[in-house]
Amino acid sequence: MTTIAHKIAAAISTLGLSFLSATMPAAAQGTLNNKSFVENFDSFDRSFWYVADGWANGSHQNCTWSKKQIDTAGGTLTLNFSEGQSKDRKFLCGEVQTKSRYLYGTYEVRMKAATGSGLNSAFFTYIGPTDKKPWDEIDFEVLGKNTNQVQVNQYINGKGGNEKLIPVAGGADQGFNDYAFVWEKDRLRYFVNGKLVHEVTDPSKIPTNDQKIMLSLWGTDTLKDWMGRFSYQGQASMVIDRVSFTAQGDACQFPESVACNLD
Q1: GH16 domain location, by residue (predicted)?
Q2: Active site (annotated) includes residue 137
């Protein structure tokens, strides 16, 4: 883990915040479901998805979550980052999360990351104090300072330090790429475009608590070393073509799924 990442995690822990702030509405907490699904975004099901609106994760975030930054059209979900005054911030950004929580299985997204230094295009799972649970998290994050790579990471009871940067051929913001992780009790595997790129077998570095599935695009003025110096160049967009979860032991749900070829 880099020095700056250590400082970020320490600051968040000191303030009693995670990137999913303690101010998260109770309606977003959810319950364990763990049923397999494939979401192609032919429509947007608000009984399945919670849309973050009117709040932010902490002072490190320079935008306010807004339902106006969410758009579904043509079989894709778009999360936008754009100018717009809300409370003490002058930018608006988009986030959605499942209302249910999930545990062991294969988590997959096909997405195109946003372009722009200081932005973070994220596909991850999360649970924390707002759910009266420890802070556990599994991440794919494309950091705007270098969209030729994606960062993977895990938090276990609020402890991170498991970052690894994975190259994304052609650039994560130049086209759609497939990101997946397979979460088992004693193993966690990360895949990029169907290729195994990282494996974790240390049980102390594998989360154990069921989590919500989340997609978000946000920016920062302060975390420059991690995400890059922020410079607004007009609206930026993260586009999601598909999200899926295949419960452990279930058959794979589409031909491109890494769940079709697991040992």
Answers
A1: 17-251
A2: yes
